[in-house]
Amino acid sequence: MREETVELPELPSLSKLYVTAAAEAARLLISRRDGGRRLPDARHHVAVVRPDLARLTAYQHLLGEPARDVVPAGYLHALAFPVAMSVMAREDFPLPLLGMVHLRNRVEYRDPVAYDDALDITAWAENLAAHRAGTQVEVVAEIAGGGGPVWRGVSSYLAKGAFLPGIDKPGANGAGAQREEFRPPLPTALWRLGVDIGREYAGVSGDFNPIHLSVLSARALGLKRSIAHGMYTASRALAEVGAQKGDSFVWDVSFEAPVFLPAMVSVNIADAVDADGAWERSDFVGWNATAGRRHFVGSVARLS
Amino acid sequence: MAADKYTQFVSRGWGRDLAKRLGLPQPVELRRHVPDAPLVPGPVLLVGTGEGADAVETALKGWDVEVRRDAGTGRAVPSAAQTAAHDGGKAPSSSGPPERRERLGAIVLALDGIGAPEGLSAPFLAAGAALRSLAPGGRVVTLSRRSSTADEPAVAAARSSVEGALRSLARELRSGATGNGILLAEGVPADAPSALGALRFLLSGRSAFVDGQFLTVGTAKGEVPADPERPLAGKVAVVTGAARGIGAEIARTLARDGAKVVAVDVPAAGDALAKVANDVRGTALQLDITTPDAGERILDHALHRHGGLDIVVHNAGITRDKLLANMDAARWDAVIAVNIAAQLRINEALLASDRFRDGARIVSVASTSGIAGNRGQTNYAASKAGVMGMVRSTAARLAATGGTVNAVAPGFIETDMTARIPFAMREVGRRINSLQQGGQPVDVAEAIAFLASDAAGGISGNVLRVCGQYWMGQ
Amino acid sequence: MPITQPAPVRKAVVVGGNRIPFARANGAYTETSNLDMLTAALDGLVARFGLADERIGEVAAGAVLKHSRDFNLTREAVLGSALSPETPAYDVQQACATGLETVLSLSDKIKLGRIDSAIAGGVDTTSDAPIVVSEGLRRAVLELSRAKTVQQKLKALSRIRPKDLTPVAPGTAEPRTGLSMGEHQALTTKQWGITREAQDELALASHRNLAAAYERGFFDDLLTPYRGLTRDQNLRPDTTPERMASLKPVFGRHLGAEASMTAGNSTPLTDGASAVLLASEDWAAERDLPVLAEIVDGEAAAVDFVHGKDGLLMAPVFAVPRMLARLGLTLEDFDYFEIHEAFAGTVLAALAAWEDEDFCRERLGLDGAFGKVDRAKLNVNGSSLAAGHPFAATGGRIAATLAKQLHERTRAGDLGRPARGLVSVCAAGGMGVVAVLEGR
Q1: Counting CB atoms within 10 angstroms of each CB, which of B21, B52, B96, C300 has the fewest?
Q2: Which of A137, A172, A207 lies at the terminal end of a domain, its last residue?
Q3: What CATH code is carried by the domain that includes residue A99?
Q4: DSSP states of C133-177 as a string?
Q5: How do residues B10-48 score in pLDDT, each as one tens digit?
Q6: What are A148's strand-pairing partners?
Q7: C156/chain A closest Cα distance in angstroms
Q8: Closest by alpha carbon to C248, among C262, C236, C231, C264?
Q9: Same structural domain for residues A186 and A162?
């Protein structure tokens, strides 16, 4: 069904991809992108990737994960991200990479990955769909170990203001549905995030998107201040669910109001158990107590 | 405890010469107690004959002291037996080089047999002839009988004459030498334990700042301690106001002499009190002595923690100085409450217990202010004079049970308190005594330790001044 | 042949205690260190019981906020004290339960016959708190120390950024939640519906009880004044309900009108130290030392507070029923309760939980409500709200205070049996340590 598998010799450089994307954005200011109304039928693939132990440890320390030999689900996301990015940076990708908003991220972590496992990473884009604010797309990344797929992540992005012909406007359901008013629960945790957190997460994840790095670089891209990586907040919530989640789970997060840095984020994590008293799922939500706005909401659940 | 700076300066080198030329006071560093040192810094000239002289000679020899007898003719003769060796291997020699005058450690005048004022002439002149031979830190001690209304007038006159003569003699002495006397009550033999105990104390470095004073031996009670270095061994002593100053020194001295010390002070002095108690390997009792049950609590602590109570030293005292014209009730009453009322109440409680009453030793700290008076200290002098009254009355009550109660009246003592007196006043206060210097807290403590000892069992109702023979009062 | 083990279980008793008055942070003890204060507390104890030169079986103490140079804090304090330098010592750290844990673990050693005497204690300073360098500087310096070549050294140095030079003070936030202890308690306080009035009333009682105990001289032989302080600096004997009510909430402000925790009904940061002399009965008798109380039993518990399943400071609620079940006792069997007042809400939430049938059935596994604490028996000589709470020193304060109270009551003889006391101390990390003492 897929027409093409692009073999990448190594993990692509995210900074190069960002530069390409910036150049592409600049080019588009002059001549609008034409033709691309459908997603490329291509899978990008990198073979034999190994996590870097020092970077993994730094990641674990930053996110509050125990420094085990098992690689956290969020780190695998970071590992696969350049491959996913390389798909979105393709010339034939129909949406502009820069300014894309991360709406949702869903991960299935099926089998624990050890830091010295040799991994295969494959990424592709699918499900181009209309959104009330533009067009959204799902980028899927799959990681396979020696025995088959171990991790699968689906990231939903929104290209704001990009409306592609032939894509229907959304109905009353889906991401465009009007959100009910947010009533904050009692916090179970409070995150004090300094402006450094963007740079620090960039350092361990490799995601040097300028909107996270500094006030100046964020302003250059039209934001009033830098914002925390969505995946930082999601990964920290995942870490704080704790050891009860085990090594295999489904991890789902939706991003709402961006976290402008520095920030105080109130967090609630609520655990649910099954009839036997065993852990079933933990729902988490993060919000700004002053503004009453929700930053993210999600869950970690037992893999059924 | 170093002597004050001036005393250090004029004690040696060109400072001494300068002071001499200018006619400045020339205080010297006093001879104080050093463990295992000889009792006196040279042989003792014993003047007089009879029961007292013989008792003294026997005692001195027993203490390894070399004795020169003088019958009272004004010419010293060598003693028959001079074989005792001093510690440190320096064998005394009666046949020293004739060109070098022998330095006497002390002159003892045995005057217990004097029956008329004329009898003083020969012994005092003999002593006078020997005064220039007295070593620095030497001692003159008289042993005589206390005059009383029962005496024949001539006898009473002779006995009283001794006091006047000795006090004047003491004012002549220089170089840290002191003159003191022992008064024997009628019927007390010259070799009574307390007579010999007092003699030993007055000859020793322990009495360094006691000068021009008399100790009265009222009874033949008392015991010579087995170990003169640890006369309080096995005793349990309570010292009030022990956290600092004189009280802390009393605690240290009693402990040095072998006592187990309960250091008492107000709770606010806590940390300092703990340090003192731990230093002396005793216990601390945080207690405001003005609380109604202070006596019971002291007794309770001593009995439960140390299995007994032998000695109580009432040292705690406060000053709230103000001219009487400006005095308020709070100042007056506080001083009375702490300095005398608390002692009365505590004694009452302690003496009600048969665990303390028999053989009790109580020593109170009075003050020369209570004797001579002091401007701005009506309240303080009242309290300290009150202490002396209490001592005399209590002594009579204790006589039956073998207990004693005495007071020590310090003069100018170098403490944190006197260090705060303005310089000029402090200098005057220091110099207006025969020793031309302030005393050290240990000097007060030594007197108290002596009065608390078994050797002082025949001494009760005394007020012993530790003042270097202050110019005012007796 | 197997080794024959010595001595069966025997009794461990409290001989007495000593502490220095507790000072408010940056108050009377600003310039003194943990070592200074612990040594002062030990020396006061030594002086009270004449223990100079005594070789004590073992001394255990600790500090929650401890400088790395104080790695052997308790041993150093022993060496600086009048105790025999041949007295061994070790440090304990169990957050605010440190003090009580030292009492329990040392009394266990006495009970087993391993030692005959012990001093338990604790100390804390928030005025002289350890300050650490930033993580960036720390890593750079570590890298520098590993560097061999000049280039490596320069590279390590080049990692240091100006902001790395800012020192870092310890926070009171729970590491896993980022919420301060007060914020955690604010949630528990709200969850149990504890009112502002009830909290203020408890705080007021703490001040009044502590002041009354000072007035009647109760602390004269439990406390050694230090650095000019003769009473706990936080004590406000004349505080009024009106003044309490006028204070603004400091914790749980996100709760809006429901915020009820003020500086008055929360313990302030405090400096201080305490020590308790423990012994076998024989050891005390040989030295004619008093015996105030017996350490009967103890229990530690912890709760899963991280996602709010239980309140951070609610562990004692679980520990007490477990311990009393073992002893066959109920709350009605006690004459005194010493429940550490981390916050007024902590105490009140614990009492509410024990009276809550559903909670006791579901969470404590009991048939119904655990029981009611008679408020007239609670913290009768004041507690942390009035005295202050130098974290690790609180256990020693409570153990000695309760032991003396039990002794006095037992001696009064009106109960017809020894007086019984229950101690409960909550701690950071969702922990709690509780104990039972019986008077002699």
Answers
A1: B21
A2: A172
A3: 3.10.129.10
A4: --HHHHHHHHHHHH--SHHHHHHHHHT--GGGGS-BPPP-B-TTT
A5: 777 777 777 777 666 777 889 999 988 899 999 999 998
A6: A145
A7: 16
A8: C262
A9: no
**A292 in the same domain as A157:** no
Q: Is residue C432 part of a domain?
A: yes
Which residues, in sequence order, are bridge partners of residue B362? B312, B405
Shared-domain flag, residues C324 and C394 = yes
| Residue C212 belongs to domain with CATH number | 3.40.47.10
The share of chain A scoring above pLDDT 90, in percent, equals 58
Token pair listed for C392: 């690790």
A58 vs C contacts (CB less than 8 Å): none
Single-letter amino acid code for the residue at C194: I
Which is the CATH superfamily of the domain at B236-466? NAD(P)-binding Rossmann-like Domain (3.40.50.720)
Interface size between B and C, measured as CB pairs under 8 A:
79
Residues A136 and A219 in one domain: no
Query: Which ranges in chain B are annotated with CATH 3.40.50.720?
Result: 31-79+102-217, 236-466
Catalytic residue among B63, B124, B380, B412: B380
Q: Give the residue from B443, B428, B367 showing the smallest Cα distance to B176.
A: B443
For residue B98, the model assigns a pLDDT of 42
Distance from the A234 Cα atom to the nearest Cα atom in chain C, whole angstroms: 15
Name all chains with 3 or more CB-CB pairs below 8 Å to chain B.
Answer: C
pLDDT-above-70 percentage for chain B? 91
- Other residues' Cβ atoms within 10 Å of the Cβ of residue C157: 13
| For residue B82, pLDDT beyond 60 | no
Same domain, C147 and C213: no
**Residue whose C-alpha is closest to residue B24's, from B431, B426, B469, B425:** B431
Q: Residues C143, C213: one domain?
A: no
Q: Could you say which residues of chain C have pLDDT below 50?
A: none
Which residue from C81, C82, C224 is facing B270, i.e. has the nearest CB? C224
Are C198 and C149 found together in one domain?
Answer: no
**CA B392 – CA B405 distance, rounded (Å):** 8
Contact yes or no for C306 and A187 at CB 8 A:
no
The residue among C134, C305, C307 with the most chain A CBs within 10 A of its CB, best to mutate, is: C307
Q: Which of C50, C225, C289 sits opposite B271 (nearest CB)?
A: C225
A168, A186: one domain:
no
Three-state DSSP class for residue B198: helix
Alpha-carbon distances, residue A222 vs A96, A227, C73 (angstroms): 16, 12, 55
Cβ-based contacts of A64 with chain C (< 8 Å): 176
Q: Determine, for residues B291 and C217 on separate chains, whether the beta-carbon distance falls below 8 Å.
A: yes
Q: Domain total for chain A? A: 2
Known active-site residue B380: yes
* Distance from the C144 Cα atom to the nearest Cα atom in chain A, whole angstroms: 18
Q: Which of C184, C207, C360, C426 is catalytic?
A: C426
Same domain, A167 and A189: no
Which distant-in-sequence residues (6+ apart) come within 8 Å of C287 by Cβ?
C49, C50
Q: Which domain holds residue A40?
A: 1-172
The whole-number average pLDDT for the span A269-279 is: 93
C177 touches chain A (CB under 8 A): yes
- The amino acid at C185: Q
How does pLDDT run across A55-105, given as a tens digit for each residue?
999 999 999 999 999 999 999 999 999 999 999 988 888 888 877 899 999
- 3-state SS, residue A4: strand
Residues A108, A237 share a domain? no
CA closest to A239 among chain C residues: C176
CATH architecture of the region B31-79+102-217: 3-Layer(aba) Sandwich (3.40)
Same domain, A159 and A189: no
H-assigned helices in C147-254: 150-158, 181-191, 196-215, 241-245
Full residue range of the structural domain in which residue C155 is found: 135-165
